[in-house]
Automatic annotation (TrEMBL):
Catalyzes the oxidation of protoporphyrinogen IX to protoporphyrin IX. Pathway: Porphyrin-containing compound metabolism; protoporphyrin-IX biosynthesis; protoporphyrin-IX from protoporphyrinogen-IX: step 1/1. Belongs to the HemJ family. InterPro entries: HemJ-like (IPR005265). It catalyses: protoporphyrinogen IX + 3 A = protoporphyrin IX + 3 AH2. It is found in: Cell membrane. This is Protoporphyrinogen IX oxidase. Coiled coil: none annotated. The lineage of its organism: Bacteria, Pseudomonadati, Pseudomonadota, Alphaproteobacteria, Acetobacterales. Keywords: Cell membrane, Heme, Iron, Membrane, Metal-binding, Oxidoreductase, Transmembrane, Transmembrane helix. Its main location: membrane. It is a multi-pass membrane protein. The keyword Iron applies. It comes from Plastoroseomonas hellenica.
Length: 137
């Protein structure tokens, strides 16, 4: 099967994984903001959220990277400015996921978490990525 024949499937899988990753990233952000606002949050809820993060959000992030890199290679886009900007934003969002996962781990262990409200920045990043991917300016 040729790369051209695989392209629509790679793109569809990339978009599906991106939706799962973005949803998990936002859900985790909202959960951590609520946990910081409510003194004595229940670590049990954090453990449930952590299981979701490890079972869905983290694998989705890895799939976004894998399918995205495969698409970039097939399109020979690594020299394009729009892709470099998109990759920079994805690196930041992946880093935010790591920070949030660390906060979630601490919360599940019974520790307090600092006030955390990156949801507006996450939304802006997701919107910027969508514009860059579709418009390819």
């Amino acid at each position: 099967m040729s790369v051209a024949a695989l392209y629509p499937w790679l793109k569809a899988l990339h978009v599906a994984a991106a939706i799962a990753f973005a949803g998990g990233l936002l859900a985790l952000s909202v959960f951590l903001a609520a946990a910081a606002a409510i003194p004595g949050s229940v670590p049990g809820a954090a453990r449930v959220m952590r299981r979701w993060d490890r079972a869905v959000t983290t694998p989705a992030m890895l799939l976004v990277w894998a399918f995205g890199l495969a698409l970039a290679l097939s399109g020979h886009w690594f020299g394009e400015t729009w892709l470099q900007a998109k990759l920079a934003i994805v690196v930041v969002l992946s880093g935010l996921h790591g920070v949030q996962s660390g906060y979630l781990r601490r919360l599940a262990g019974g520790a307090a978490v600092p006030s955390w409200r990156p949801a507006p920045f996450i939304l802006l990043g997701i919107l910027a990525i969508a514009v860059l991917a579709v418009a390819k300016p």
